[in-house]
Amino acid sequence: MCNHLSYLDVIALAALTPAVFVAKREVRSWPVFGALARMAGTLFIHREMRSDTARLAPELARLLDAGALVVLFPEGTSSDGREVLPFRSSLLEAAVWRGTAVHTAYLEYELDGGDPGAEACFWGTMTLVPHLLNLLGKARVRAKVVFNEMPVRSADRKELARAAHNEVVRLRDRLARCDKPHPAHEEAV
Question: How many Å separate Cα 101 from the centre of its chain?
């Protein structure tokens, strides 16, 4: 489980390891990204229909039983990265049924000469094509991903969501501490 900032998240995480992603059904019809998501085996969920979670649970359980890495963005939406939104627990039922260990990750972006929250993160009422065109004009986008050392487990999906959220926030805070220059390393101006 990972925080969710942008359509770039899938690219960043897929570059690190093969995985099956779960995405909102609207992604299926996005230019370029929709076709790539379908070809990669992404599972699509209709978030406004609670029954669709029940439809997806057996497929998630099958993937977990087969040893597949399934990536969820349990915030349920993307953000500008200023905070980690609360995690929704509905898609965690398969992990709870199977007693599967859940690993967490925290992801953030850096841009040369830009604001990651406005230009790399894709959230709110942003429109895909203008956002993508702006992003393609950037010289470099860097993704930083940190993973937890120990998985979280719970027999209750809501508790699992809370524990995973707490772990992602801890990873964010750890990364923020690592990014701050140490006073002994700062140069005098």
Answer: 17
Task: Write phi, then psi, for 15 (nearest 5 degrees).
Answer: -70, -20
Phi first, then psi, for residue 77 (nearest 5°) are -160, 170
In degrees, to the nearest 5, what angle opens at C-alpha 73 toward C-alphas 13 and 6?
A: 65
Rounded distance, CA 82 to CA 60, Å? 30
Which residue bears the tokens 């059904």? 25
Q: Is the dihedral of CA 162, 163, 164, 165 positive or negative?
A: positive
Do residues 56 and 20 lie in contact, with contact meaning Cβ atoms separated by under 8 Å? no
The CA distance from 9 to 79, in Å, is: 12
**Helix count (H) and strand count (E) of the chain?**
7, 5
Nearest Cα to Cα of residue 88 among 150, 164, 28, 12: 164
Report how far residue 61's alpha carbon sits from residue 64's, in angstroms, rounded to the nearest whole number.
5
Sheet holding 70-71, edge to edge: 43-45, 20-24, 70-71
pTM of this prediction? 0.87
The neighbour count for residue 122, using CB atoms within 10 Å, is 20
Output phi, psi for 145, to 5 deg.
Answer: -130, 130
Predicted confidence (pLDDT) per residue in 39-97, tens digit: 888 999 998 888 898 899 899 999 999 999 999 999 989 999 999 999 999 999 889 98
